[in-house]
């Protein structure tokens, strides 16, 4: 209950922020919200599912490219619906995760550092593939991706302006956050925690650990795919960097700094780190990376639960209970 | 046809034979104990029955079905529950949540309240399981088995680390589970006082095979068992 109250207050503050931060920062914050969505997806699979995916950007990029290809009419000129694009982006990323997950988790399964290395390698392969796939723009990517077009009962509205786009994205992020939180508090959430902490025990109770891992991997990929799909409509541009190593590493740092075992902390970790990056890079130039690195080290060594998760847990957690 | 049939099970680990043509029948509703020195293959046997390991040869039949190479979750769904040697509970979940996960889709409220009473954990069911004392963790794991409600329970050293009073209470609980719930129980244990308290058929295992079977007195007085096993176990000698 206190979890939800704190989250509601934070989302309310985000909703009110355009009144204070002005148009430029509203645009920036919209992109950070999308990164926050990507961080939620990684927190779900890593913090709750115990699957360290070092290539979360691959699902982000897959979602982005599917959205771009569909809404640009590259598959069917008449099929450019944003809704279909968003759904296809989620489904495409989830299906890719299911296929990849089966390869990774079936049998004795791969976990820990090996899993991280393999997912990282797959990301690098996909980034290289997109750089050389000329039908999809190759190194230059796909330009002129149309903005999201919302259609309600025959009336349609394109998300060009910053403010409506911000609120539409915030709406999606809010629904995904509270939906995921609800799921984690259900019986599924218990099974997920159980599969992370003692898979052998869970298996001996009659649960298929493979199914649980596949389901969380696919769900997390769908959320990352959704984030990627929204992202390409903000700048109208899909490029191989969306799918690559850099973004995969960045999202890991955001989530680790925020706190991987708390959706809200991971989400805020992404927003605050990106905001800090904007400010600090103006002041320190490229040296801001050193500050980020130091913050990451402090977080891992002194506050392994995360810089934000620790105070948030203090605010939201009852004695002896895990917070969501 | 026995409830659980273990036929000529062989399992090797890098040249070491953990089970050597192991054969045993377990009748439905029975309570049996398996004893033997460390390394004689007892836990390997449980791993084979529950699908954690696959035998190099031999056959495992449960309720008439050949389950030899089934995955662990499928074997569990058929009705085999297991308590691990080291308490295997979900430490990040509360006591109640551990039981909810174990109870799966069953109507949970009443079952869980009843089990909490049976395992003496009614005081703080919303406590994190990781914060329990060792003996309580053992009891919680037994409680999870009760919630799972399998027809065959395999208990691997259920009283390890327990006090004398807890050990006696655990023996009473296991006997009750067997008699009142009709669950078939196979237990591995080193504590011979506990085994005597169970008052059940006893199988002595040595070098991956059954050396002798009988009741507690027969086993205690058997010269071959004394020579091969009891001589090494002070606890048995004092029992």
Keywords:
heterodimer, A: 324 residues, mainly alpha, two-stranded antiparallel sheet, 72% helix, B: 239 residues, globular
Please provide a written account of the structure.
- The complex is a heterodimer of chains A (324) and B (239).
- Chain A is mainly alpha-helical and 324 residues long.
- Helices cover 72% and strands 4% of the residues of chain A.
- Chain A has a domain at 25-244.
- Chain A has helices at residues 2-16, 18-48, 56-71, 82-105, 112-132, 162-185, 187-197, 199-204, 209-235, 245-258, 263-284, 288-302, 309-316, and strands at residues 142-143, 149-152, 155-158, 237-238.
- In chain A, the strands form two sheets. Chain A has a two-stranded antiparallel sheet. Chain A has a two-stranded antiparallel ribbon with strand order 2-3.
- In chain A, a hairpin with a 2-residue loop joins strand 2 (149-152) and strand 3.
- Chain A is globular.
- The termini of chain A are close together.
- The model of chain A is unreliable at 319-324 (pLDDT under 50).
- Chain B has 239 residues and is of the alpha/beta class.
- Chain B has a domain at 91-149.
- Chain B is built from ten helices and ten strands.
- Chain B has a six-stranded mixed sheet, sandwiched between helices. Chain B has a four-stranded antiparallel sheet with strand order 2-1-4-5, covered by helices on one side.
- Chain A: Pfam families: BPD_transp_2 (PF02653).
- Chain A: Its main location: membrane.
- Chain A: One of its GO terms (molecular function) is branched-chain amino acid transmembrane transporter activity.
């Amino acid at each position: 209950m206190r979890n939800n109250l704190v989250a509601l207050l934070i989302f309310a503050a985000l909703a009110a922020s355009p009144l204070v931060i002005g148009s430029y920062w509203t645009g920036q914050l919209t992109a950070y919200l999308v990164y926050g969505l990507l961080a939620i997806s990684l927190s779900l699979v890593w913090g709750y599912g115990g699957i360290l995916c070092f290539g979360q950007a691959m699902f982000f990029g897959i979602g982005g490219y599917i959205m771009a290809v569909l809404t640009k009419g590259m598959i069917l000129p008449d099929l450019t619906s944003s809704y279909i694009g968003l759904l296809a982006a989620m489904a495409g990323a989830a299906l890719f995760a299911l296929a990849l997950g089966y390869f990774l988790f079936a049998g004795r399964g791969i976990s820990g550092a090996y899993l991280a290395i393999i997912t990282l390698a797959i990301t690098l392969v996909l980034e290289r593939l997109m750089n050389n796939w000329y039908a999809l723009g190759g190194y230059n990517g796909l330009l002129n991706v149309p903005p999201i077009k919302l259609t309600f009962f025959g009336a349609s509205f394109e998300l060009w302006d910053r403010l409506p786009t911000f609120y539409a994205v915030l709406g999606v992020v809010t629904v995904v956050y509270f939906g995921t939180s609800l799921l984690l508090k259900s019986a599924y959430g218990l099974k997920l925690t159980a599969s992370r902490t003692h898979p052998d025990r869970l298996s001996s109770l009659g649960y298929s650990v493979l199914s649980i891992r596949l389901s969380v991997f696919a769900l997390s990929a769908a959320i990352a795919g959704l984030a990627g799909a929204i992202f390409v409509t903000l700048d109208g541009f899909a490029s191989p960097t969306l799918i690559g190593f850099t973004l995969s590493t960045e999202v890991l740092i955001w989530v680790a700094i925020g706190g991987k075992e708390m959706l809200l902390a991971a989400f805020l970790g992404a927003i605050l780190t990106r905001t800090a990056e904007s400010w600090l890079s103006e002041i320190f130039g490229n040296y801001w990376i050193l500050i980020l690195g130091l913050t990451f080290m402090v977080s891992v060594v002194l506050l392994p639960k995360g810089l934000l998760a620790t105070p948030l847990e203090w605010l939201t957690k009852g004695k002896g209970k895990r917070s969501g | 046809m026995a409830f659980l049939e273990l036929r000529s099970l062989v399992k090797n680990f890098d040249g070491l034979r953990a089970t050597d043509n192991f054969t045993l029948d377990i009748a439905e509703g029975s309570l049996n104990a398996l004893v033997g020195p460390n390394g004689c293959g007892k836990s390997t046997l449980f791993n084979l029955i529950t699908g954690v390991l696959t035998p190099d040869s031999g056959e495992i039949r449960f309720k008439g079905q050949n389950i030899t190479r089934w995955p662990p979750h499928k074997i569990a769904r058929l009705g085999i529950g297991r308590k691990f040697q080291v308490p295997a509970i979900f430490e990040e979940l509360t006591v109640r949540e551990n039981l909810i996960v174990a109870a799966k889709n069953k109507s949970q409220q009443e079952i869980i309240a009843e089990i909490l009473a049976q395992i003496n954990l009614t005081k703080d069911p919303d406590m994190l399981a990781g914060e329990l004392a060792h003996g309580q963790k053992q009891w919680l794991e037994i409680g999870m088995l009760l919630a799972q409600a399998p027809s065959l329970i395999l208990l691997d050293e259920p009283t390890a680390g327990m006090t004398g009073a807890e050990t006696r209470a655990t023996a009473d609980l296991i006997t009750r589970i067997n008699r009142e719930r009709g669950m078939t129980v196979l237990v591995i244990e080193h504590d011979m006082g506990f085994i005597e308290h169970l008052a059940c058929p006893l199988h002595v295992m040595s070098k991956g095979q059954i050396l002798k079977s009988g009741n507690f007195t027969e086993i205690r007085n058997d010269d071959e068992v004394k020579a091969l096993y009891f001589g090494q176990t002070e606890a048995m000698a004092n029992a």
